[in-house]
Amino acid sequence: MVPVLIKDLLKSSPDGRSVKVCGWVRTVRDSKGLVFIQVNDGSCFSNIQLTFDRNNPSNNANVNQIEEELKKLNTGASVRATGLLIESPASGQAVEVTLEGLECLGACNPEEYPLQKNKMSMEYLRENAYLRARTNTFGAVYRVRNQMAFAVHSFFQERGFQYINAPEITCSDCEGAGEMFQVTTLSMEKIAEMGIKAGAKGMKPEDAAKLVDYSKDFFGKKASLTVSGQLEAETLATALSRVYTFGPTFRAENSNTPRHLAEFWMIEPEMAFFDLDDDMDLQEDFVKYLLNWALTKCREDLEFFDKRIQPGLIAQLESVVNSKFVRISYTDAIAKLEEAAAKGAKFEFKPYWGCDIATEHERYLTEQIFKCPVMVYDYPKEIKSFYMKQNPDGKTVRACDVLVPGIGELNGGSEREADYDKLIAEIKARGMDESVYDWYLNLRKFGTVPHSGFGMGFERLIRYVTGMENIRDVIPYPRAPKLADF
Q1: In sequence order, what E strands does 182-252 have?
Q2: Cβ-based burial of 84 (10 A; exposed 0-12, middle 13-18, buried ≥19)
Q3: Phi-psi region of 61 (alpha: psi -120 to 50; beta: other; left: phi over 0)
Q4: Whole-model pTM?
Q5: How many CB atoms lie within 10 A of CB 164?
Q6: What digits encode the pLDDT tens for the residues 406-425?
């Protein structure tokens, strides 16, 4: 008999049929001869209750076997149980399973088990990440993460997009920030040895880079882990019209804030023949689609987050879904922030034209001024990436950030520069190595078209939907400075 998932059992009618349940024990309680075992298999937030009546042993032919297995059970033990699905007299669930057979598959020593009944901190659970999915909080996080990934694919597939896979190893820096993890087969120890010998012979420290011969490296040139799949997605958008990539990206930013990871997943659609207005329309639809999916498909888990993690979470998500996003230029947004500051609003970072809008500014715009999601567009080109389309004013680019109450920026995008001469001039002006962007520039030579795209950090989305404070708690195994153990 195949085990039935607990989420399906809890929706079933108590018709007395025989069922098999597999999962991990949450609690075991013996009350006046009645044994109650709470079991969870991760398929939903709720447990199924298994019951055994010691007062009526004649009702069960396997009483001795069950008694022996009960002795092995503690919190964390895995079990396989068979029994009859009956109506539960207890409040909170409609059905339970009266035991006919029980097998402890894996014992769990309560003296050593890291997950104890007392409240555990997020930091403690992060140190035991291989087990934290068994807790209510993280089981709910990962179920929501699963649903959101499915929703991402559903949204784009319903709109004629092709799913593509961008490479994780690249020679180009999409963002131009240089915070990339290098990929090499060269021996650091041998290079260090060469450096010591060269120094002894009088080589100056500023000439040390000459010791590294990338022609002998695996790829024949300097290569890194990608920070974005956008550039490669653009190449396919200019052939397939609408594409999206959804995969891991990497950034070697030495940051220990609750908002940064070294390895994270990015959702990056690219659309040929879309201008910025089309792009903004799609972004608004995308955000509303995802949040509505969470509210519909993950209701039980969201109710837990609303109660235990962030009170008011569901109301906040519903408000975004039901709102018309305000659209405002960067220039006008800064003017409103400067006006608020003049009237006494307290900001850690002073808002001024040319600044990169900080999280506190984003939240003030959405929570105090407009009280709804806000889309800020036409940013100064100096604070945005090289590939964004320049406006006729020569000062701003056709970029847009989507800001939502509670977190600030959720996603952002732009119309891409389709003019070869303007793009290469920008690459040169920023001191970037144009040779590694030859293929990207050539897109502007061979049938160039207006095109746009945007990016959303998947973990940022999960953090927003669940209300979890630290981004390290919405990915199964977080990677951050000094954190890559398991």
Answers
A1: 182-183, 223-225, 242-250
A2: middle
A3: alpha
A4: 0.93
A5: 19
A6: 999 999 999 999 999 999 99
